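ASSEMBLY PREDICTION REQUEST
Request ID: AP-0331
Submitted by: J.K., bench scientist
Number of chains: three
Total residues: 808
Priority: normal
Notes: Please return the full assembly, not individual chains.
Input sequences:
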Amino acid sequence: MLQILIQGLLLSGLYALIAVGFTLIFSVGRVLNLAYGAYLVIGGYVYFYFAQSLGLPKPLVMAMAVVCGCLVGVLKYRLIVKPLKGNHVAVEISTLILAVVIQAGIVLLFKDSPKILHPIVSGVWRVGGATITFNILTAAVSSWLIFGGLYLFVRKTHTGRAMEAVSMDTKGAVISGIRPDRINLITWGYIWRLGCNCRGIFCELYPAFPGYVGCAVNHCGCGGYRGWYRFDLGYLAGGPYYWIHGNYFNLFDRR
Amino acid sequence: MTNPTKKYLLLWAIFIAVMLLLPEFVSKGTLRTIIFANFLAIFAISWDVLSGRTGYISFGHPFLIGIGAYTSAILSYRFDMPIELSIPLAVLTTTIGGTLFFLPALRLKGSYFALVTLAFMELMYQLVQVIRPDLTGGTRGMSGIETITRGAVNNYYLSFALMVTIAISMWLLMRTRFGSALSAIGMNEESVRGSGLSTTKLKLAAFMTSAFIAGLGGAFYVHYLGSIAPRALFDINFLFTIIVSALIGGAATIIGPMFGALFLTILLEALRPILPGVERYLIYGSIALIVYMFKPQGLVVLVLDTLDKLRSIISSRS
Amino acid sequence: MSVLEINQLSAFYGKARALNDISIKLDKGEIMAVIGANGAGKSTLLDSIVGLTRTTGDIRFEGQLLNECSAADIVNSGVGYATERFNLFPYMSVYDNLMVGAYTARDDVEQNLELVYDLFPRLKERETQETGTQSGGERQMVSLGRALMSSPKLLLIDEPTIGLAPKVCLDMAAALRDLNQSTSLTILITEQNVNFAMSLAQNLHVLETGMIRMSGTPEELKANPDLNKAYFGSS
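STATUS: Completed
Returned structure:
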């Protein structure tokens, strides 16, 4: 029980972060990004390939995952989201198709067996009867840092505030001189970064597996679905739920 | 009877005749592919009745199909119920059960509706595996379920008859005022409400129709396969195939989903020698994405447009 | 040179024509009011100036043609637009709303903030309150404040008194007059409240179903029997 409580507490930040990434694009762009799960997966595979197969230094690979994520996000916005401008249904369906395409692409490159990812930080810490790996601890700390950084970005910078503004009232934002188009582009780039980040951390915990493309969306939908601008405790309250849910995958799901 | 209706009836007749003669000309393997296409067409029509017409995108159709398939499978496999009884019961369960689940979702708009339906699919996937695995067969599912008929040819005729019956009934239903009202919701829900119709009732009716077809398709499908497993059913690729069939063929039509299902199934089979596994979806998905981006009305319209263009080129030359 | 010059402007929603052949000219430091009933096209006129509708005709701001510019460019070039209070960001604090307004004028933030807080001391008191929970009058002030944060040379205000108590209307008029005199800001307002508009503006236009019916100074319009009949119920 103690184990569950501690891990739940530690991992809630990570799951909250994943959820924020998903709701971010929904609030600002008003579309469900069903390819979001694919972002997480791509981050994981970039890490697997460059850090484990090629043996590049871990921090460098983390940075690469972020950069390549941004690039793909911007491309996606330019090539798919923008041409379908205004048609939310079309954007949502095309993100679903994209999710499938990315998933198939990953299977093509890496085959569909799960890849075991080595922990980024090794070692364990025993508290009472509970065991906490340093890996999970690192994941928790880094997700809290990113979460904090995101909070500051939204609250304290003009671009962050503009993202918030577009999400609440597009006309209000436009007459304040904001280009929603540009903000959307930034957001799409940004969530890719966030998605890949998340997965970069996430990958320590679960093997990289293409099947996560679908289920990751599910992670995001349930807890904090109220518009990210509230930034309230909803996400965090969702955390333990996500964790139980995640464990549930491990216990019952023997794919 | 008006002229266009006559023309359509003629086209239906030609189509049915060609499909009936098909087993004489193609191999058993191809026939099995087309059986899958027929079932896919049923699912795509079911999706299209709700989502293609009204614009309320359902990401949860595997959920409905799953209810139908599992109910009939459990009743016949675990309780030795005859198929003649288990299938109608399964259809009834899907219509009622699906409606109860979706009732709250129908009050939601746009993306929220889509998200909730997606959640239903995931929920069903998780629940099937842990709740009474002695009934559902858990993760492994069930196999050795009684089949309705044996052999590719018989199954082909069965699936084809089912599809054509559903397609024609939907075609007739969509020509009524009900059908036009649904399309009107897709264009502008506010104005439909403004003209005094209850959009909630209309959407509910559309949903029940859709669930009915999904349950029917699901139940027959499971008695064709003889087995069922949660991973194959509640899968993003399956969902994707259903939706893309409807869209790539042409949403809000009847011929569209049928054509789309046939096209996608054949494409998938044609790719098998080159790419055996899930990788096929890379090409398949890319084609779907390109068609969808550049011709959102679908392939049927694309083909007709091309024919028109060719005709005008030919006539301008002569 | 006039600050804003509109020539033969027509605006469309789809095929429906919402404005028909409007010509207006504003000089520097002038307050002009466009009065009219609901649906006369007042908001459409202001939306058209910042490029939010499809238009034909010329709109010139300080001699520059605006027709081809995006809304963001127009705001950037010095047109501030205070919409009705519904276009605020409801889950942001008053301060954050104002800061979004400063998006295009990041160097003048402090100076503009001081100006807004001087004009509406109430906003300073309520700095951290979310605008979604504020009263209509307060939101109207935030909307105006947000437009002022972009250092505008021309300020467009859509119905500043809508839903306000008479006492608050007087405050608003005083604030706008103050603003106009201290910074010689050019202001174009739309109004249904004819008394308010006449007490404030040097020139008025009466808009009816997308067309200008009458124009003139407050005195000229007051003397016009048609207007009296329509807006004051007496002749």
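REVIEWER COMMENTS: Residues 71 and 189 of chain A are 7 Å apart (CA to CA).
SIGN-OFF: pending second reviewer
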